[in-house]
């Protein structure tokens, strides 16, 4: 996939999120929280992030 192409799966996920009423901020918060959880888990396991 070229850098300037949209990933069809991500587009589908974002469309579905909007259809169920999630706001852009809620979607962003979800991914931010998941990233923070992964970093915390890695730190607990002694991995560098």
From TrEMBL:
Taxonomy, superkingdom: Bacteria
Record-given protein name: Sin domain-containing protein
Domain Sin: 1-35
Source organism per UniProt: Salinibacillus aidingensis
InterPro entries from the UniProt entry: SinR/SinI_dimer_dom (IPR010981), SinR/SinI_dimer_dom_sf (IPR036281)
């Amino acid at each position: 996939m070229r850098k300037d192409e949209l990933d069809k799966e991500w587009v589908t996920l974002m469309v579905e999120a909007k259809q169920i009423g999630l706001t852009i901020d809620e979607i962003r918060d979800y991914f931010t929280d998941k990233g923070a959880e992964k970093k915390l888990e890695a730190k607990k396991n002694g991995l560098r992030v």
